[in-house]
Design goal:
Blueprint lengths: L1 H18 L6 H15 L7 H28 L4 H17 L7 H20 L4 H37 L1
Helix pairs in contact: 1-2, 1-6, 2-3, 2-6, 3-6, 4-5, 5-6
């Protein structure tokens, strides 16, 4: 049963890591996978306390991701509508990037985040330079936030694998 639990954990965790750049909270998928693994193994491989630590890390990761995007966007002059546009753009971009195997949705999410912020700034009447600056700022925040969340997710996965071995 332990091996089945680890295989399920690894599959779900991989999905969690892959959806992080798109804007979906993949760290919570990893937390859910760890909880399922805990249940399947009688909390042997993943203890209840480790599950709650992972939950706290996922919450901190999401909060950090949001704050990185806001801080970076604001530093470059983005407004709240640009941030909303960035989120929508990341989702649309990741969907449009699906035909490009492996990295399409990742590239699409980042380009979509830039485009969403850029378009919103332009619609709001800002000039081309400010729209570009806002898009770049939000893009930097999205990239950094995604890197941090992927690192948190990978740390969770490594911890579970080490505890299993």
């Amino acid at each position: 049963m332990d091996i089945l639990a680890i295989v399920i954990f690894l599959v779900l965790s991989l999905v969690g890591l892959l959806v992080i750049p798109v804007g979906i909270p993949g760290t919570f998928i990893i937390v859910s996978a760890s909880g399922l693994t805990g249940l399947m193994t009688g909390w042997d491989v993943v203890s209840i306390s480790l599950f709650f630590i992972f939950l706290g890390l996922a919450i901190l990761g999401e909060l950090g991701d949001y704050l990185f995007s806001v801080a970076s966007g604001k530093k470059y002059g983005a407004n709240k509508y640009s941030l909303i546009g960035s989120f929508i753009g990341a989702i649309v971009g990741s969907i449009l990037g699906l035909p490009l195997p492996v990295i399409g949705n990742l590239v699409g999410a980042f380009l979509g985040a830039f485009a969403g912020a850029f378009i919103m700034e332009f619609i709001l009447g800002n000039d081309l330079l400010q729209a570009t600056r806002s898009g770049v700022g939000v893009l930097f925040g999205k990239i950094f936030g995604s890197i941090v969340k992927v690192a948190i997710g990978m740390g969770m996965i490594v911890k579970v694998i080490v505890d299993f071995i």
